[in-house]
Amino acid sequence: MSCARFYPFVAIVGQEKMKRALIFNIINPTLSGVLIRGEKGTGKSTAVRALAHILPKIEVVKDCPFNLPNGDSTGLCVECPKADCREAVMSGREPEKIWREIRVVELPVGATEDRVVGTLDLEHALKKGEKCIEPGLLAAAHRGILYVDEVNLLDDHVVDVLLDSAAMGVNTIEREGVSFSHPARFTLVGTMNPEEGELRPQLLDRFGLCVTVEGLKDPESRVAVMERRTAFDEDPESFCKSWEEESQALVERIEQARKLYSHVAISRNLLFDIASWCLEMGVDGHRADIIMLKTAKTIAAFDGRTEVKASDIEEAAELVLPHRIRKQPFMDIVEDVRSIRV
Amino acid sequence: MKAFKRIFPFSAIVGQERLKKALILNAINPAIGGVLIRGEKGTAKSTAVRSFAAVLPEVHVVAGCPFSCDPDNPAEWCRYCRSLKSPPTVISRPVSIVTLPLNATEDRVVGSIDFERTIKTGERHFHPGVLAKAHRGILYIDEVNLLDDYIVELILDVAASGINRVEREGISFSHPAKFILVGTMNPEEGDIRPQLLDRFGLCVEVQGESDLERRVELMSFREEFDLDPDGFIQRFEKIDRSVAMSIVAARELLPRVKTNDRTKKFISDLCLENNVAGHRADIVMEQAARAVAALKGRLYVTVQDVQEIATMVLTHRRREALPPPPPPPQLSEETDTRKDQPPKDKPPDQQKPPEHQPEHNGRAHGQSMNQTEADEERSDEEREGKENLKDRVNYKHVLERVFEIGQTFKVRKISGPKDRILRRGSGRRSRTRTAQKQGRYVRSSLKGDGSDVALDATLRAAAPHQLRRRSNSFDGLAVYLTPQDLRHKIREKRIGNFLLFVVDASGSMGAQGRMSAAKGAIMSLLLDAYQKRDRVAMITFRQNEAQLQLPPTSSVELAAKLLKELPVGGRTPLSAGLIKAYEVVKRELLKDPSTKPIVIVITDGKANVSVGQSKKPLEEAMIIAGRFTLDDRITSIVVDTEKAGIMQFGLARRLAEYMDGLYFRIDDLKASDLVHIIKEEVTQ
Fold first, then answer.
1. In angstroms, what separates the C-alpha of B6 from chain A's closest C-alpha?
2. Residue to substitute from B2, B7, B19, B41, interface A, most A β-carbons within 10 A
3. For every residue of B607-649, which 3-state class applies, written as one string?
4. B223 and A290: CB-CB below 8 Å?
5. Is residue B595 part of a domain?
6. CA distance B425 to chain A (A)
7. Which pLDDT value is given to residue B346?
8. Could you list the residue range(s) of the whole structural domain that residue A130 is in?
């Protein structure tokens, strides 16, 4: 694996909350993403790109444009642009499968709608005279991570489309002569600088977790940041190698937590705790409850426990609630959740 | 079952009984005409609709028919079914729930020429669109308030007539399209047009559960489902099926359910009381009540049945009684007294002693206000004194006060006229054609420079000629395009306008709760601006100068924050404010000549400070106001903060006349009833 292009995740100094939020999302993709808010130069983008070092593997059909785990002879594969694989599936054979790391797909701020949702395949249409879909970024991000840098600057139009498919995990295309739908279940990771405007509450709610990052305050860590960064820039290869062991340890820990997750139990009392947190904070709807439960369980799994503790719930609250207390478009985002509750 | 279509079971949804009932009633009696689900995020709106398909009984359709024709109703058959020689084979299949995604283009909604088949056969074939697929099923629009206007109009048209007529690309075709329209929306993101609102038979407002026990149950259900979807679905299969059975039974009963005259009278009285527009409410209510009775296995409708569904029918149709009642005066007093508290807590250094004005109200006797006006002012003050002594006492001591934001409301539609200038940007206030390769691709046209080719339309245009062209050509391509086939995309999107708020923050605005009402109005306009993605800027004027408090920005949040902290006090340099506004607008116009700025002046018009020496303040302001008329890209609006009453100066109205702009009182800004808005749109 040649990850030397990216700064290693484990080598990021401080920013524990952000790192944990990202890790939780990798352990449990149903947390549906994390929003990282913070000023410039606080390692937001670096952290997301660095995920490449610690991503788990999934089984997919080789080169499948939709990242499917299996061939689907009744639905998607019928109209798939990949001819050889399609024929294999249609004739009842198993398509070739591989194990690979889940992908981080980047959605550039200037992306057009047709690139995001997919469109008519021009080449195929001209050459063969057949209608064929050219999958967009949402298809590429299925079962992976969709990363939007500066998510608050995204064109409004694209945000609407994103909301639409993030809601149900299905992307439906009814445009330019193509009628098609494919699964699009992704972990939405966004970074933003609040100085440049806030997000719409609707989109905000789609991010499972939200963390605010700040520059490091103590000189020692700042020096560490400088030293490590220079070391990386000078010789990425050997820098990554020196962190290899730690990366590997984290990958294993994540792997363990993924397996453990379904065995984590939570007492009924703690469930009531979660519900009353959400009620007291006056959040909209029930997404907060559900995500909080999942986060608490993920935290327990990450710590290698099979029982959720009260402290897990508190940590979950800090990640899940801040951006949901903001009910109306113009209310500020709350930074410290606990202070409100007391 | 496709792996990605595993959906949370309908009967496992905790709570939301009204939502579930509304869906079931529609399934029993399609004549109800659909349901609109309004509510905050995360309340199982979409989940409920998507899972509903599983509990619907199957429909009988003609086998092979692309339009799902009803075998028992030959009168409405499509061309395909009529061409069948033998009686059609009947199959039954689940009711289809067709999702209309936000990115849909026109050709897929109504249907278009089938380019693949046309190329092969050389004949024009029709390729059915979403509307055809939804026939005898459910057309589901998630986030219906975000859907493009153009598409909405198309759907409305078809929903009203039940027939989709297609005249495009050399095809002339029509097919039946009767469907139940189900939409979900989050009102925070902006509302939908009243015409569309009325089209939905029922409207359900959903909220989160407030009961702890149920929240816990809900959480655990969801988690169980995510861990083991198949097992969970199986667990609820039986209950789902029993719901389906009750729907089937109720459907059979429905034609025999009768409504007696007394109940009918009750229905019409109810509709009258709530002052609904038109007769759709009456009809829908009766149909829904019959469905309720059928569901209960009864053959007659009772008053209770009607009461059960009355709110669903009326919530989105109810109007205020006409004429609109005057604004409740006690409200502003209340806010005023409440607002009186904070200044007392302020440290004394903030309560600067008045320098120029010993009296409150921005009233300045020595200034150029003429005698009558001053008189008016005094009587104003007297009235006020009687009404609210405490208020008055405060004026004497406090020059600067910060008022809280008054009540907000829905804002009526404000937009410039649509034109054909190509613009850049993004937003949703005024519609425009866009020059960038961005925005909604609505339809195609022959005109264009070839940079934004509408491939699908081009191929469709070329398709009928392929057989002929193929014989003349020898290279390996399947499709032969010639320049005359080229079609170009016409994109349309709403661009945000530039809203410039010019706010009078002088002392006179502090009287009678004017400022908090004005702040409420500005806040409402800001909320509206947020939903329409406008750029905003704010200028305030008080004491001797005007300040650009907020330079043009698209962060409406910043403006809201500023507004909250905006203090009031001092004299009224209206002309300075107008000059500043003119400068800002001019600058914006230079930067982007195609923007259409809307200048919103919020004032009572009582100018008492002039910029120059020669003219009286009011006179000077009016002359400056005249400048705004020179550029017809500028739309101006004057919001009068003066309370309606016997004593009125009408200065703001004069200002509006000089600016050649619209004049509103704060109350006029409120989005009025259905009829009014429709009228407005028609005249546009």
1. 10
2. B41
3. CCCCCCCCCCHHHHHHHHHHHCCCCCCCEEEEEECCCCCCCCC
4. yes
5. yes
6. 9
7. 40
8. 32-56+102-213
The end-to-end CA distance of chain A, in Å, is: 48
Contacts of B533 in chain A (CB under 8 A): 156
* Same domain membership, residue B515 and residue B577: yes
A238 touches chain B (CB under 8 A): no
Find out whether A170 and A181 touch, Cβ atoms under 8 Å.
yes
**Hey, is B171 helix, strand or coil?**
strand
| Out of A150-154, B358-362, B602-606, least confident range | B358-362
DSSP line for B560-616: HHHHHH-EE-S---HHHHHHHHHHHHHHHHHH-TT--EEEEEEE-------SSSSS-
Interatomic CA distance for residues A25 and A13, integer angstroms: 20
Q: What ipTM does the predicted assembly reach?
A: 0.79
Cβ of B41 and A284 within 8 Å? yes
Mind listing the pLDDT tens digit for each residue in B489-510? 776 655 567 888 888 888 777 7
- B617: preceding bond cis by omega (within 30 degrees): no
- pLDDT at residue A336, as a whole number: 63
**Are the beta carbons of B301 and B258 closer than 8 angstroms?**
yes
Domain assignment present for B247:
no
Nearest CA in chain A to B98: A172
Q: Is A75's CB within 8 Å of B127's CB?
A: no
How confident is the model at residue B676, as a pLDDT? 41
Does any domain span residue B77?
Answer: no
> In degrees to the nearest 10, what's the CA dihedral of A139, A141, A147, A150?
10
A40 and A168 assigned to the same domain: yes
State which residues form the domain around B2. 1-58+94-208
Long-range contacts of B68-76 (CB under 8 A, 24+ apart): B68/B96, B68/B133, B68/B135, B68/B136, B68/B137, B69/B176, B70/B136, B76/B176
Check if the beta carbon of residue A133 is closer than 8 Å to that of residue A118: yes
